[in-house]
Each structure stands twice: as C-alpha cells, then as structure tokens.
Amino acid sequence: MASDLVIVYHRQPYEEVEENGKIVFKENKSPNGIVPTLKGFFGRVDKGAWVAWKLAEDAANPDFQRVIEIEDSYGKYSVTRLPLTPDQVSSFYHITSKEAFWPILHSFKERYNYDPVDWPTFREVNWAFAEAAAAEAAPGAAVWVHDYNLWLVPGYLRTLRPDVKISFFHHTPFPAADMFNVLPWRREIVESLLACDVIGFHIPRYAVNFVHVAQSLLEVGSVVRKDVNPDFIWEGTALSDRRVPESVLYQGRRIRISCAPVGIDWDFIQDLAASEPTREDASAIRSELGDCKLILSVGRTDYTKGGVQQLESYERLLQTHPELHGKVRLMHVSVGANRNMAAYEEIQSEIEQMAGRINGTFGSFEWQPVALISSAVPFKDLIAYYQTADICWITPLADGMNLVCKEYAAARTDGDGVLVLSEFAGAAVELSSAVITNPFSHRSMDMAIEQALAMPEEERRQRMAMMRETVKRYGIKAWAEDQMSYFTDDETLPAAQ
Ligand code: GDG
Q1: What is the pLDDT of residue 497?
Q2: How far apart are CA 201 and CA 171, in angstroms?
Q3: What CATH class has 266-473?
Q4: CA 298 – ligand 1 centroid, Å
Q5: For residue 269, how many C-alpha atoms fall within 13 Å in the half-sphere facing its CB?
Q6: Would you tell me the crossing angle of helices 204-217 and 186-193 to the nearest 10 degrees?
Q7: What pLDDT was estimated at residue 41?
Q8: E strands, 64-146, where?
Q9: Which pLDDT score, from 0 to 100, does residue 32 have?
C-alpha cells in the first residue's frame, strides 16, 4: 500500500537491538528529541512511510531487509532502510555533512573542510533517498524531507514524481549569503530546495538569509513578505527580525517559506514532572545538594554548543567569587552523538581537561565544583534534574533552536528556576524573559551567571511564568499543526505586492 505521508530523515525511527537471538525495535535512547515528534504525524494518515539509512557491510546482501512494516502506538508505517556501506556513510555523513556543511551552517568558516568531500557520493546517496521516497509515495502524497544532509533530495524527487507535495525543514540555522556561499555546491543545493512546495525554518532570520542566498545565486523574484508574529520579535536581540518572506517565485512556481519554531511535548513533560518517581528523584537530588545551588548545562558534545566557553566562565566565577566555593555545583551533561570524528573528540577532550582543571584547582574532598556527565542520562532523570536546578545554563555559540531550554521551562511546574540563554540560540527570539547572554563576550557571560545566582525569588517566578506560557503555546502541537497545514492547504498563495 502506498503512503500518504513519507518522512525522509537520515536516522531510523527506533533502535534495532538483538534480544535472545531476535531483532527487536525499541524507542530511541540516544539524545534527540525530534524523532518521536515526527512519528506522531503517522497517527494522522492511513499509512505512513519513513526513509532512512542503515549501515550494511555488503549492500548487495540478499538477507538485508530493506523495508520493514511497523505498527506501534504511533500508527502503521513502513520503514525503508537504504543500505549504505561504511565508506558511503563516512563520505556522505561524517565528511560532507559534518565537516563541510555543519560548520558553515553554524558560521564556523575556520572549521570548514572542503578537501575530503566526495560530491558524487553525496549526490548518489541523496538520489537513493529520493528514489525510495518516490517508490513509497501515493499519488499526490506529502513528502517531508529533513535537514541539510538531504539537501539534494527535493530536486531529484521533483523529477521522479512531479505530482507529490514536497516540504523541507531545516533544523539548523541558515546562515547569511557571505557564509553560505563558501560552499562550492551552493547553486545546486539552492536549486534543489527551490523544487519544494514549502521550505521550513525555525525563525524568521533563517528564512531571510535563505531568500537572500537564493537571490544571490538565481533569478528568484517576487518575494512576498509579511510582518513577523510579535511573539517572535524582541527588540535588539541578535536573531530577531521584523519582516519575513512568505513566498518566492522561481521558474514560474511559487514556493512557500515557512517559519515555525520546533517546540517540546508540553503534556508529556507535565505528566513526567508530576509522576511520583520523578518527584522522589527530585527530592533525593535536593537533599543531596544540601545548601549548594545547582547549575545545569545539557547538550550534545559539539563545538557549536559552547561547552568550553561556558566552563571558562565558570572557572572565572569561582576565581572571582571565593564565597561561592562549596555553595554551587555545575552538572555539565555533554553527550557525544558523533563518535569517531576528530572535531568532536577534540572538543570532548577540551571539556574533560577544563572540568578536571576546575575540580583540581577549586575542589576539595567534600566539594566537587563540576560533575561532567558524558553518557546519556535517561529522560525521566533529566526531568528530575531540571526540576532541581536553580539555573539552567544554555549558551551555544550557534544553535538552530535548542530544545533543552524549553524542556527546562516545561519541567518547572513549581514556577521557580532561572534560564540563562545564549542570544545565538533560535529559542532566544521566543524566550525574551530568560537572562540573555552573548557567549562570545566574557563580560556578558560572567554577568549573566552572576545575575542568575543573585536573582530574587519574585523576579525568578515572574520570568519563569512568562517563559512557561510561551513554551506551552509554541509546543510541538503548534508546530505540528503549522507543518500539517502546508500539506493540506491548497489555497492560492498571495501574490507579490
Ligand atoms: C537539532 C538542532 C534544534 C540531551 N542530552 C540528553 C538528552 N538530550 C536531549 C534533550 C533534547 C535533545 O537531546 C537536544 O535537542 P537540541 O534542540 O538542544 O539540540 P540538537 O540535538 O543539536 O538538535 C537544534 C533541534 O535539532 C530540533 O529542530 O533545536 O538547534 O541542532 O531533547 O533533552 N536526552 C536524554 N539524555 C541526555 O543525556 N535522555
């Protein structure tokens, strides 16, 4: 049976594990919040399909199960697993996507590595994804492609299946033209994206940048703009914009540009936060802390997440505030999702060195200033830590959105707690009542953490109430409704003025 909704996402939507000699499919344990959300869309269609890759030593092995059928709490869907060899994975994912695209998307030109990129392999893998999606899609189906490692899929898919609706969502930032155009394949990428019906971003700034890039490279015209939703305007912050493109015209086709911040599953976090085991865990953590304040930092180990800069600020805090010794603890959860890559090993080792230095310099037998956690904490435990942390310290140098800060606000059912947030996380345009900081400035970083530590309860509660309202309003349901409306809404697009 063909599918009404095909989700094209590079990872499989479960973990495949062997139990008693049998293969079973389990919910993902690795730290990535988006997979369950995407699977949630399958509940809305008769039949869904997911296309991902799976490592295969021998792609021609007849025992390789390419398509599997799943029926679980999310609905009925098939999963096509494209067999990729270790060399293809290394070239398509680790090299082209992570060493060339990722640094440019996050504006780290100096980390961009062009030399090892094998562009024909990137094309070949993207073509395989497009072919698999084309084979699964029912006539007029919606195909939803995710993230930069599948940039060429829309263009190939449009050739194979002119009838389908194609939507593409970027989870990362989209940089300005001066940065994006460093990529030598820029024109091919943008042409592919313009084969979509809808191109989605988290926040207006990324959409503005995309349209500017497209206009710098191709005859893209007749841009329709609209005012930004006032909830996403915050005067003076780095990523805020007042006008946003809504659609563009390219080769006679009008393409929608959508801006919708990915949110979190509010109800799920409320339930988890209210559950007896979480409350017990939170209370145990609180009594273990005694009169120490807990600062919590959570993120993947990645140079974009600013872990090193944050630890440097913590070191300065302990140098300049001896009265905080024994009174504050930092729990730094930094989980490596991209193993065997030099850039990530390097950052992990820098973080370990910094944490060791801080503990060695300031710590004692009774008090360890930093607890560095490098393996994934179960999500329910994370909620208990969110509930106990006096401060959640999220200071990426660049981040498409950042869901951790939203999870923190959602978990604070008690209405207390302070969020310190980088102005270079997409979430900063929504969460203006956080203590906003600039991670490129020592002074700004240091002042923000001092302000958070000293904040009176009344102010903490006022700010938290505003954040919780926003996080609830723009939760994952709002994002899902917004994205779904593009698949079902055939209404004529507005003309350019
Ligand atoms: C990309 C973009 C964008 C983290 N450590 C643990 C753990 N996590 C979970 C968090 C959260 C998720 O991982 C991280 O989400 P982020 O949004 O912060 O970051 P990325 O992984 O970089 O995601 C990002 C996102 O896509 C969505 O569009 O916001 O900007 O880079 O859910 O809770 N979860 C558990 N243990 C951990 O130790 N269980």
Answers
A1: 39
A2: 7
A3: alpha beta
A4: 8
A5: 27
A6: 120
A7: 83
A8: 67-72, 75-84, 137-146
A9: 52
Instruction: Locate 354 and state its tokens.
Output: 């910094």
pLDDT, residue 336, reads: 85
For ligand 1, mutation pick of 169, 272, 401 (most atoms within 8 Å of CB): 401
Q: Which residue positions in the chain have pLDDT lower than 70? A: 27-33, 338-340, 489-497
Cβ of 147 less than 6 Å from ligand 1: no
Determine the Cα–Cα distance for residues 487 and 485; give it in Å rounded to an integer.
5
Q: Is 403 in the pocket of ligand 1 (CB under 6 A)?
A: yes
The CATH architecture that domain 3-263+478-488 belongs to is 3-Layer(aba) Sandwich (3.40)
Q: 249-264 as b/e, with b when 16 or more CB fall inside 10 Å?
A: bbeeebbbbbbbbbbb
CA of 284 from ligand 1 middle (Å) equals 25
Expressed in angstroms and rounded, the spacing between residue 495 Cα and the centre of ligand 1 is: 38
Backbone φ, ψ for residue 250 (5° rounding) = -145, 125
Confirm or reject: Cβ of 376 under 6 Å from ligand 1: yes
214 and 192 Cβ atoms separated by less than 8 Å? no
- Please choose from 402, 424, 474 the residue to mutate so as to test ligand 1's pocket, defined by most ligand atoms within 8 A of CB: 402
Average pLDDT, the chain: 92
Residue in 390, 415, 409, 420 with CA at minimum distance from that of residue 330: 390
Minimum CA distance residue for ligand 1 atom 1: 171
Strands (E), 410-463: 418-422, 435-437
CA distances from 415 to 123, 319, 436, 462, 468 (A): 49, 31, 19, 8, 8
Q: Which amino acid is at 485?
A: S
Positions of CATH 3.40.50.2000 in the chain: 3-263+478-488, 266-473
Residue nearest to atom 33 of ligand 1 (CA): 404
